[in-house]
Amino acid sequence: MAPINHSLAVLAACLFFYGASVAEGITFGQLDDFQDGTVQGWVSGLFNAHPPINVAGGPGGAGDAFLQVEAHGGSGPGSKLVTFNQDQWRGDYLAAGVTAIRMDIKNFSDNALTIRLLAQQVLVEPLVSDGVEVGANSGWTETLCRCRRD
Question: How far apart are CA 108 and CA 66, in angstroms?
Answer without folding.
Answer: 13
